[in-house]
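Input.
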Amino acid sequence: MKLPSCAAALAAAVLFTSLTGVSEASAAAEALPSVNMEAAVKAAQIDPRRPDSTLTPGAKASVLLVEQALRDRSFLDAKWVDGYFGTTTVAAYAKYQKSLGLSGLDANGLPGKTSLTKLGAGRFKVTDVIDPGARVSTGGFVVNARTRSMLAEAKRLLGRDLKLDQGSYNPGGDPTSAGTHDGGGVVDISVKGMNSATRTAAVRALRLVGFAAWLRSPQQDDWPWHIHAAAISDTSLSGQAQHQIGDYYLGLNGLAGRGPDDGPKVTIRTWEEYQRR
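Output.
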């Protein structure tokens, strides 16, 4: 059945207006600036540990957009909008996360996918998203999907299994861990049966895929020989683990004394950067 000419014209006009609205909305979204989540999260780990105000390379534009949004929501004073994701910006971001009703690891001051997307609504779009994934089990310990994938690739590079001594999301599980295992992304790995060369090779494999990893000895503290590994840029990291990763980027050993890094030298990459290499 044919529509009367006036009805057909009206339908066409409605359709045109609808399509035009969709097109304009899409164009507006495309015109928004971008926050590179990988860059912002990296800066949020490194900048608080710096002895100066050096900016994390490649992160300034994204950090500025985040800081401007926090300022406009009265979480950050204007004087701190400088592209440096230091302790003040981390604290401001954590307050913003809590204002969304988030708590615990979801309000750890690191930009997460959900909070960053909400912060950018109408202001910026989020690219290069990091997602730790669901909590899963590996070797009898709880980790997240991202960490499990990283461990699997490290094992492939090493050509042997890596047995965990401790997993993630383990608050208070080991007092000597100083809270680093309270969140995601952090594991301890047994070195039982490994000689010195294999231990070093295991640390190197873990570092190559995106862990800040070190061989720990009984001489350092009240613990057995093991490898401690923290997944760089895991957005569910505890505050203590965030500090370890910042120190790793700065050439330190991740311990309270902040001594020089004693592990094998590799090009530092996140898991996402490793996958794109």
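The beta strands are 34-36, 125-127, 135-138, 141-144, 164-166, 186-190, 211-216, 226-231.
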